[in-house]
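Raw record, unedited: Profilin-1
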Amino acid sequence: MPVMEDSLLQDGELTTGLCTKSTGGAPTFNITVIMTAKTLVLLMGKEGVHGGRINKKRCGVASHLRRPQY
């Protein structure tokens, strides 16, 4: 069951963050979606990595892709 942080359709944000949840000790992951003018980019963190680390990466990737209007 994912937990969602949705800003995909908000002006200036255009991102969605997902956190997977598990039962029975299965691995959990943080996933983020970035929408640019031409693409949807999916980033998936490694097992056990805190969501804040992928959010920082998300901001950098989004900024890098949006700067040249990609």
